[in-house]
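Input record (one chain):
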Amino acid sequence: MVKSKAILGLAMAGGLLAGTLPFSNPTVFAKSNVVHEESVNGKLSYIGNYQTGMNNKDGGIAEIVKYNKDNQKMYLVNGAAQSVDIVSVVNMTSNNKTEFKIDTRLDITAMGKENGFASGDITSIDINTKEKIIAIAVQGATYKDNGSIVILNYDGKYIRHFEAGVQPDMVTFSHDNKYLLSANEGEPREGYAAAEAADPKGSITIIDIKKGVNKATGQTIGFDKFDSKEARAALVENGVLLKPNTTPSIDLEPEYISVSDNSHYAYVSLQEANSVATIDLKTQEIVSVKGLGFKDHNVEGNALDALKDGQVNLTTQNLYGTYMPDGLASQRIGGKQYIFTANEGDGREWADYEDTVSFRFPGTSYKIDTLLNTERDGLNPDQTYLYGGRSFSIWDADTMEQVYDSGSDFEKITGELYPKAFNSSNNKTELDSRSGKKGPEPEDIKVMKVNGKTFAFIGLERTGGIMMYDVTNVQNVKFYDYVNLRDFAGTDVSTSGDLAPEGLCLVEAKDSPTGKPLLLVANEVSGNVRIYEISGR
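The corresponding structure, as predicted from the sequence alone:
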């Protein structure tokens, strides 16, 4: 299984030769495991921070953050506190590392009791400056109940709520402000075996707000039209991974939504199915579900460190990655719409059910987490599949053909910069601890134009930090910068700097308090929001 040719072999104290990595000065932080307040190429500058006052090794603190250009405040979903934090950043400047204080913490549980909606997990938030409203996704009281999309004003006062599907996990407004959408996962969180267990249908809620929020109407659409024997078989033939003997309407679990620039289409990541669904917002119908295929780690450019052997050791392997994106973004470039995916990967572990198997490399003691092939229709029984791609990808939105993948960049770069803490988890510094799982684990991705160029920003949930790529020409994508304010010498999650970037938010220069574009990063383990100023020159 392990091929002999290693394109990168770093022992714990080793390092790469200058010029082998895709950034201008690859030896700046080599062999160092302490926190740095500078990015590799100086394009991302730390200028502000908000600390919730909480942290948790299991995450769930600072999850999703959004910025409101009207009042220059950020709104943060704090899952552990079942709250939304409102924080003013109006006084932020380019030259100071400002520590911000909370203005208001909204108690969503109490709000639900007062206004007739059950409040389980709070998962997502978005802002509509045309209607002057905020939307939050709130899950139901149990895993089987429909959730709610709750509408607030800028001060966090309740306006109204809409029923969503089961387990709304992400909420977003269309660019033209005509629609409010939620991705409702419908996960089988109590497993499959128990008599009382349920596998709810995955769905998308579409709220039409063209006539204003007070006259808005909503509907929830599912994947029932793909349930016939013929339609299901066509999905599998197209590379959509489905649990055997399960209908698509039950098995597909919408994770994240991005809307095309013209607000005609919504693109929905179906993570466990390794697929993306396209929705026509005008007809409010699902027009396609397309599989993303597999990443061939036999190819030199797709080398990875799959062995938990205490080394940074990227090699080609007879393994195949299932992209399984979590966050996705869409952007029109050169007159064409593209989808950008953060290829995290995700298995199912519910109650006594698990679709992961520990694969042992022949002739070694090394093990790696792989998909249990018998639990996915659409896998080749003679191949071994990993969760995720350890990368980001660009796809043609019309055909879902891959245009670009970052290959082994993320592990190459982090392996050079942090060889003693390479592939650490997000709550503990342990060399190589995630190599046999999903590596750096890209979580979220956002795309924005800056000074005439288009850039993609990708958060690495496990290793930490933000990757920045110039994607102006999708045929010639270039690494641009990387910043990581994690302190690998920290003794616990309260002393280790930024841990587990979960949600990213971009702010255009014209809307920024500093007059320059910003990146906001919500770190769910360390419980803080870090703010960076972006240079696109």
